[in-house]
Structures are given as C-alpha cells and as structure tokens.
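wait is this the right file?? whatever heres the structure
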C-alpha cells in the first residue's frame, strides 16, 4: 500500500467532521443539548419525552437489536451478523442511610465476526453490585463490586487504574461506551467528604489468578488479579477548577502515581488533563509476556469547545507502555499473529495501541431536524499515519431510538489501523427504553 505523505495523510473523516457545523447551521438553526452519558455501554440517550406526572423509577432497562455488516480488508472476507443486548441498572434504599446499587447486562452475537473483539458469542456481566452505608453527612462506606472510574479525558484515562480486563464483549468502538459497560472490582471503599473536596480509600482483594474470561461467570480473577490499595484526594481549587491526586499499590508489583484535573477556561471552553507514572501489572507492550512490563509515563490532555448546539473535543494522548511503531511494523511483516495478539490485548486493557495518538470527537443534537442526533470521532496515529473514524446518526422517538453507525479504518498494511480485518463496518441498531 502506498505511503501517504504526512500533510496528505490527514484522513477524509477529519474533513467530514469539520463540515458538520456548516451543514447543520444551514439546515437547522435551533440549539439543543446532546446527552453525552452512555447508559451501560449502549450509547443511548434518554427518551425524547418523559412523563412528568410519574415519579422516576429506581431502575432502567434498555434493550438493543443490531444488524452488522463488514467489508473485509484483503485477505479477510466480508462478514455479517446480528446482535442483541439487554442492560439493567438501578438502586434500592431500604432505609435512609443504606442504599443498594446494581447493574448488569447480557450480550449476544449469532455468529463471530473479526471486526469485534469478542472472547465469547454470548455473555452475561455483573457490572455493579454493592451496598453503600452513610454513617453521617460526611462519611460513607461501600462494599461489593464497585465501578471505580477515574479521569477527565475522553479517549484514554491513564488514572483509571481498574479498567483492564473489565469488558467481556465490545459492541461499540466509542471509548465513552466502553467505560460505562465494564465490570467493577470487588472491594471495600471509604469516602470522607471535606470542605471543597473529598478523600477515599479502596481495598480490592486478590480473588484468583486465571487469565481466562468466563462468559457467564463473575470474572473476579480478572477484575481482582492482585491485592490493591487505591487512595484518592480531590480538591476544588476554584469554582471552575478541580484536581485529583491518586496513588495505587498492588501485590503484583504494580504501582501508580497519578494526577488529573479540569478547568473552565471560558464559557465555551473546558480544559482537562491527566498524568500517571508507574508499573502496570501487564503492559500493552507485552501482548503475550506480561513480565516485560516497565515503569512508564502515560498522559492525556485536551479541551472541549461548545458552539451553539455543537460540542467538539480534541485530545492528544501518550502511552509509554505501548509498542513502538517500528516494533509493530516488524511484527506485521514477519509475525502477524503477534501483531493481532498485541492489538487484542491493548483493547482488553483499554489502553492506546500506539505511543502517541490524536482524538477528535464531535456531537450535536437536533441535527438537520428535531430529534436527530449526530456524533462521531476520529482517532489518528501520527507515527504510522493510520486512522479510525466512527459516525452515528440517531433518531430519537418517545420510547425507542433508531440509529445507523459507520466505522472505517485506513492505513498501510503494516500500520495499526491498516492491518485490522475490517475496512468498513455498517450497523443498524434499534434501542428500546423501559
């Protein structure tokens, strides 16, 4: 495949994202607010209209049915499949100072396709199941399977230390969806609220040493591979700026020290950054040999700009534990199996597969006409000049959504996005909200 010069290597998808605001402004001038929260990894928004007379239920149930079609990159074949997902989330409060939180999901494909990183055709996941007891207004104790999500970045969260091996089946390439669809870690956490901040301490015990994912099990050995202690201190510096300091120590030789924060620079611009340094239990540079993990830096920094109904996020990320572009190109040329194993392992660790990457995300509600939302992202690797782009159009109805999703990857055959089995992926998804 021809090597594209650097200036010409900017993907066409960047131009598509850049032209969205112009088309939307001409077609529809009314502003709207996009719901950026993905519910249980199903990349959904709330129903268009809620019944104001009824009090909100303490639980939500979301189901999806999707049809997938892929165009294979030579020598991979074209493929098609159907999938289904059901996600439940809720909480109960048997007494004033005690609450119970739970979340679970079921996923199924009718056939395995190479475009999705799937260890199973069908799986069940307990995402959260914990009790929270408030001793007073400032002290809370939680116990059970807790989803500990940290970090302010969109594409990569280096201070999110419990993300590895927490997703059984990937159904959407959006990192925001992946973050919300993962299994939590079993542990006990204490939270102490302070003036303008808080402190928390989490103990997560080792619950096994198996490296294999179970389709119907709790996967406790993967979410709790070592005895871990995580301390977090957060502080609001001003009304528009906050920081967090994090420290992790694990029995497997893993340790991390991190910092993250965000600040409102103007009414339209929010800046965020996070940094971590330490040794991971299994670095992405060692797809098959975790003993090669080393002390390394990881960081992500960027900003979100809002203009009318449009929201744009641009980020740059660095992963010091990733393989170099030269090493990966050698694998692709001489050991393709090692290259595919490395990419699959990086996805399971939810870490970038390249040392450096750029990420552009855009979203708008009421695009062209009311109740039609558009969102998408481009991930660009400057080292090998390959890229991946994803676009979604979603029509919101009262109790369900209908969406079309398109994903494409481009690059040389020895690049990280140019070696993937599927060149293009199309998906039509029907989502029902109960």
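ok assuming it is, sequence goes like this
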């Amino acid at each position: 495949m021809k090597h594209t010069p650097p200036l010409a290597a900017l993907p066409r998808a960047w131009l598509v994202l850049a032209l969205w605001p112009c088309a939307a402004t001409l077609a529809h001038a009314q502003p709207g607010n996009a719901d950026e929260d993905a519910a249980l990894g199903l990349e959904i928004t709330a129903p268009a209209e809620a019944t104001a007379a009824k009090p909100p239920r303490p639980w939500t149930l979301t189901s999806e049915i999707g049809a997938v079609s892929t165009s294979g990159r030579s020598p991979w074949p074209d493929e098609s499949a159907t999938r289904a997902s059901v996600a439940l989330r809720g909480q109960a409060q048997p007494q004033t100072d005690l609450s119970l939180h739970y979340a679970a999901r079921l996923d199924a494909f009718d056939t395995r396709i190479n475009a999705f990183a799937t260890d199973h055709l069908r799986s069940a996941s307990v995402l959260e199941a914990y009790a929270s007891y408030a001793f007073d207004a400032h002290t809370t104790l939680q116990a059970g399977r807790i989803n500990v999500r940290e970090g302010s970045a969109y594409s990569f969260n280096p201070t999110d230390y419990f993300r590895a091996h927490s997703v059984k089946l990937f159904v959407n390439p959006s990192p925001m969806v992946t973050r919300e669809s993962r299994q939590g870690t079993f542990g006990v956490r204490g939270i102490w609220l302070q003036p303008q901040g808080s402190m928390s301490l989490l103990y997560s015990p080792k619950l096994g040493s198996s490296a294999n994912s179970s389709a119907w099990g709790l996967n406790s050995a993967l979410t709790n591979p070592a005895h871990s202690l995580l301390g977090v201190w957060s502080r609001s510096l001003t009304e528009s700026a906050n920081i967090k300091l994090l420290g992790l120590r694990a029995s497997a030789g893993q340790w991390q020290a991190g910092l993250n924060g965000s600040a409102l620079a103007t009414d339209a611009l929010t800046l965020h950054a996070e940094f971590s340094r330490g040794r991971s239990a299994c670095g992405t540079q060692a797809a098959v040999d975790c003993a090669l993990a080393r002390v390394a830096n990881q960081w992500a920094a960027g900003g979100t700009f809002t203009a009318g109904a449009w929201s744009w996020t641009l980020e740059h990320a660095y992963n010091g534990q990733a393989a170099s572009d030269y090493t990966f190109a050698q694998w692709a040329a001489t050991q393709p199996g090692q290259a595919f194993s490395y990419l699959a392992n990086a996805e399971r660790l939810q870490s970038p597969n390249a040392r450096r990457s750029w990420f552009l995300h855009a979203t708008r509600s009421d695009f062209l006409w009311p109740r039609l939302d558009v969102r998408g992202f481009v991930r660009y690797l400057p080292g090998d000049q390959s890229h991946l782009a994803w676009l979604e159009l979603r029509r919101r109805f009262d109790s369900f959504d209908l969406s079309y999703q398109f994903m494409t990857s481009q690059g040389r055959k020895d690049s990280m996005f140019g070696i993937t089995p599927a060149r293009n992926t199309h998906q039509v998804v029907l989502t029902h909200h109960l």
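The two ends are 48 Å apart (CA to CA). so i think its the right one actually
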